[in-house]
Specification:
heterodimer, A: mainly alpha, two-stranded antiparallel sheet, 11 helices, globular, B: alpha/beta, Rossmann fold, 6-stranded mixed β-sheet, 22 helices, 21% strand
Chain lengths: 301, 563
């Protein structure tokens, strides 16, 4: 329930930051560059640099509070689950630190240090990718994004518009339902069972809500034959700075992935050779990420 | 001249329905006509509107026969998206009427979908926002707008493409009286200046009849009256008194004709009959304490009823049921919603909270019920406060009615025989009663309430249902419960309350007997009081008629003395 309510707070809101001043497709590309970079490397040092970069960018873009709220409510539980699953199902690794015996379908379960380390690396990748996506949600105007997207794929854009709107609507429904439960004489639903009932009520209402929103979209002519006109707007210096930063970060990580300049191995034994190049790439990551924020001229709400 | 909307022998049944929602409906709307659709709840008004928008049958499915043509487009052959180019639609719930993130993008959506160029879109957005007075909202996120603001933005989005027909389903249901009147007159202006036809579904007919060219009354899915406003009111007097406006009811009680479509016409009729000489009726026939006396006398009846025992009201003796002392509610990085509110409710007191959208009514009720903690000030309760919020459906978590509330509470709200039903299968009024049963609780859970608070309980209710609710609330007050209702509906307020509290900008600006607070107002008042200019504190048609009868009798007496 808290997750649903919290989800409504993770939404775009125009703020006085260079990232919000850039056009939405470029702000989105900037965020996606970090997510993709996290998926192409496994080196914990570089993943740590990417994590620091994303968090620093969130603070510089004034969405740090939203990101940390999402981190607490949704991202961290998923990350912990990733580590746990990897530790239990991984058969790699030589350094066993616990033997849990026979677990039926899973067979003999031995916990290894390597599986824990790899689980953490996987979780770190997931964490960076999710935070980068949250950054896009908070800093890229969805209306502008959808407008750009509709020129390419109207039907996908329709689905995306519905989903975007429903996050807010369902989050608000969850808040109202939770408030109504508190009005019950016994103080309403308590514990996991009670919360589950509220979540179930919210989700079962979501279908009706999506139909309502879809009906309104259709009545506004969405999906009709009209072609969305293209707009020509010159790139601003913020657009150029963030596009360049996105290209630099992504280029750097693709180069690292292809060139093998930051090796890391989890199985059968953990191997993480630290080198000057690794630290330099980590430093460059943070520098590239934050450079566009140095120009704060003309930033206003 | 081709019609902008035509229904030819249209019948329709929803996929899960057991009866037709529309029965053999035939009607036409000419360009530039302003039509009001009237009828009790469940009469088929909203379905009629959805059929005109193409949502029936495209979106809802079901069985459909007949032909609906909108701006020359047959709804069976054209999708709602295509029909949207000629007919703008505004449905009931503003929360789901908004699909974009900012107001500007919301208004631009329809124009972009029609393939308008950037300059045309920008001009359309600017002009529509100025016309509807929402220019200051253009760059606001839609998620931060109040219900009233959302409703105006949704209306602007429906109008931005300059459709030849506008379909509106109770657009004023969430608006305060000022904003509601403004919206109706904005529609009238649009209708007159741009020749846009309007089909408006509305329960509060007194608000819109003066602007209408025609009224279509529905019952059981069929059209039972299609006439000008005057003809409709004549029909209502004979056939469906629940659809009469308060002004028409008052004149009907006096045996005066014609039934008035607005305050001006009612006053003209009264003047013509010598009942109104100056700006108002001068005689003061105080009725101020009549209802308070009734509540007191009911309380003094032999003992308290079993219902009273269940509710527990009055057990605190003369102690106030709820006291607020200097209550402030300030939002972090935001405005103050309540600013030092002092309020006291006594057991057995029926109170109405009124004020504009955003005045702080809902927040005040939430503080009363303990859902919010004041940033400054104190709230003291001598018992439990049962709060019914705006959406009754939010209270339902179970599959059966009897799993939601105790048998005693179900009996109290008249749902004793509905235990095995699913809450979603109940009608709108029954759902509200079930939600009331839930918050009132039984004798065990949480203790019996001493205050019953309701937030906008009459949204989407017809006049008959409002009267039933008002009577029920009066009975609960007579049982000793302090009843406080936040509402925009002055007619409903006059039906049950003895005291009115007017809020503005988070402050109590007036607090006193309802006749004193509402009778002399322009907006926060009833139609009867407006017609009589507040004379005698008469708020309800029956009170107004009594007042005027007294005047007639006085005149006759004076004449007899003279002769």
């Amino acid at each position: 329930m808290n997750t649903l309510v919290g989800a409504s707070r993770i939404a775009y809101r125009r703020r006085a930051s260079p990232l919000h001043a850039a056009r939405a497709p470029i702000a989105a590309a900037y965020g996606v560059a970090f997510a993709v970079s996290a998926l192409v490397v496994e080196n914990p040092l570089l993943l740590g640099a990417l994590l620091i970069a994303v968090l620093a960018v969130a603070c510089a873009a004034k969405v740090g509070r939203q990101i940390s709220s999402a981190l607490r409510l949704t991202v961290l539980p998923l990350v912990l689950l990733t580590v746990l699953v990897n530790v239990i199902v991984s058969r790699g690794g030589l350094t066993v630190f616990a033997r849990l015996g026979d677990w039926g379908v899973l067979g003999q379960v031995n916990l290894t240090v390597e599986a824990v380390v790899y689980g953490l690396v996987m979780a770190l990748r997931l964490l960076v990718a999710m935070l980068a996506c949250l950054l896009v949600v908070c800093a890229a105007d969805p209306d502008e994004l959808l407008l750009a997207f509709r020129r390419i794929s109207p039907h996908s854009a329709l689905t995306a518009t519905l989903a975007t709107r429903l996050i807010g609507v369902i989050g608000e429904d969850a808040r109202r339902l939770a408030e109504a439960q508190r009005c019950r004489p016994d103080g309403g639903a308590r514990g996991a069972r009670g919360k589950l009932a509220v979540v179930r009520a919210t989700v079962s209402g979501a279908l009706d809500r999506s139909l309502d929103v879809a009906a309104v979209l259709e009545m506004r002519g969405y999906g009709g034959r009209g072609r969305v006109p293209a707009t020509c707007r010159a790139l601003s210096r913020h657009d150029i700075a963030f596009a360049a930063a996105a290209a630099a970060v992504l280029g750097l990580y693709v180069f690292v992935a292809l060139g093998g300049s930051a090796p890391f191995q989890a199985y059968p034994l953990v191997s993480l050779p630290l080198s000057g190049a690794g630290f330099a790439i980590a430093a460059l990551t943070i520098a590239f990420a934050l450079a566009p924020f140095l120009d704060r001229r003309g930033i206003e709400l | 001249m081709s019609n902008v909307l035509s229904f030819e022998r249209v019948s329709y049944r929803y996929p899960t329905g057991t009866e037709d929602a529309l029965r053999d409906v035939s009607l036409t709307v000419a360009p530039g006509e302003f039509c009001v659709v009237a009828g009790l709840s469940g009469s088929g008004k909203s379905t009629l509107l959805r059929a005109a928008a193409g949502l029936v049958p495209h979106f809802h499915g079901g069985s459909f026969s007949g032909t609906v043509t909108v701006g020359g487009l047959d709804t069976r052959e054209h999708t709602p998206a295509a029909i949207g180019a000629v007919a703008g639609t505004l449905l009931q719930d503003p929360e789901t009427q908004i699909v974009m993130n900012t107001v500007r993008a919301e208004l631009a959506l329809a124009l972009e979908n029609l393939g308008g160029g950037a300059a045309g879109v920008a001009r359309g957005v600017e002009e529509t926002s100025l016309a509807l007075g929402i220019g200051h909202l253009l760059d606001r996120p839609t998620g931060e707008l109040s219900g009233g603001e959302l409703q105006r933005v949704a209306l602007a989005a429906a109008l931005v493409a300059r459709p030849s027909l506008v379909l509106l389903d109770e657009p004023t249901s969430q608006l305060d009286p000022v904003a509601g009147d403004e919206l109706i007159w904005q529609l009238r202006r649009l209708n007159q200046e741009a020749d846009t036809a309007v089909l408006l579904v509305e329960h509060r007919l007194e608000r819109c009849l003066a602007a209408a060219d025609r009224v279509i009354a529905m019952a059981d899915g069929g059209i039972v009256c299609d006439s000008d406003p005057q003809g409709f009111l004549e029909w209502a007097v004979e056939n469906e008194p629940a659809l009469q406006t308060p002004g028409a009811r008052m004149l009907d009680l006096l045996g005066l004709r014609p039934p008035p479509t607005g305050v001006k016409q009612a006053r003209a009729t009264l003047r013509a009959n010598g009942l109104l000489t100056g700006p108002g009726v001068s005689e003061g026939t105080p009725t101020a304490s009549a209802k308070a006396d009734r509540a007191r006398s009911l309380l003094e009846r032999a003992g308290r009823s079993s219902i009273g025992r269940l509710l527990g009201g009055g057990e605190a003796g003369d102690r106030p049921a709820l006291t607020m002392r200097g209550v402030w509610h300030e939002i972090r990085d935001g405005p103050a919603i309540l600013r030092g509110v002092d309020l006291q409710l006594r057991p057995g007191e029926p109170v109405v909270l009124m004020g504009r959208n955003g005045a702080g009514k809902s927040t005040l009720l939430r503080h009363g019920a303990g859902l919010l903690a004041p940033t400054r000030g104190r709230v003291e309760r001598s018992g439990r406060v049962a709060l019914l919020l705006q959406n009754p459906g939010d209270y339902f978590l179970h599959e059966r009615v009897d799993a939601e509330a105790s048998p005693a509470a179900l009996e109290l709200v008249g749902l004793a025989g509905f235990g095995e039903r699913h809450p979603c299968d109940l009608s709108g009024g029954q759902r509200q009663r079930l939600a009331l049963a839930i918050v009132l609780g039984g004798e065990g859970a949480g203790g019996a309430p001493i205050v019953l608070a309701l937030d906008e309980p009459t949204r989407g209710m017809d006049r008959a249902a409002k009267r039933v609710l008002a009577r029920w609330l009066s009975d609960r007050a007579a049982d000793g419960l302090a009843v406080v209702v936040a509402t925009h509906d002055a007619e409903f307020a006059a039906d049950f309350a003895t005291r009115a509290v007017l809020l503005a900008d988070g402050r109590v600006i007036a607090d006193g007997p309802i006749e004193e607070i509402l009778a002399g107002g322009w907006y926060f008042t009833t139609e009867a009081a407006r017609i009589l200019n507040g004379a005698g504190g008469a708020l309800r048609p029956e009170q107004g008629a009594t007042l005027l009868r007294a005047r007639m009798a006085g005149d006759r007496l004076a004449e007899a003395v003279r002769s």
